[in-house]
Amino acid sequence: MGNIDEYGGGQRPDAEVLVVTTNDVPGHRVEHVIGEVFGLTVRSRHIGSQIGAGLKSLVGGELRGLTKTLVESRNQAMDRLIEQTKARGGNAVLMFRFDVTEAADVGTEVCAYGTAARIVPLG
């Protein structure tokens, strides 16, 4: 799963591409800005999880099936973002963000985006 952990958060130490939400990386300098990169996925829920989510929403509580689907979608979008960054010669994504929207009432669109760059350590 690329460089994110199984729960969809945190940077693994063996990551080939550093992904940060900041403009810069402490201890590094931006050598070259490559440009915008993104990873996109659209997922639909199966009928069983939709019925289960509808029933659960009546009584309250976490919708675990939907949570799992969103984590998987987020991981896939991030993996695609990282692959695009590597393909364009980058080793970092700056100003990383997620955007999540409903896609025509049939699923959820998850877009991971940011600015691909080449960074080098200072000194």
From TrEMBL:
Pfam families, per database record: YbjQ_1
Superkingdom in the source lineage: Bacteria
Alphabetical list of HAMAP family matching this protein: UPF0145
Similarity comment text for this entry: Belongs to the UPF0145 family.
Protein name: UPF0145 protein GCM10009663_25940
Source organism: Kitasatospora arboriphila
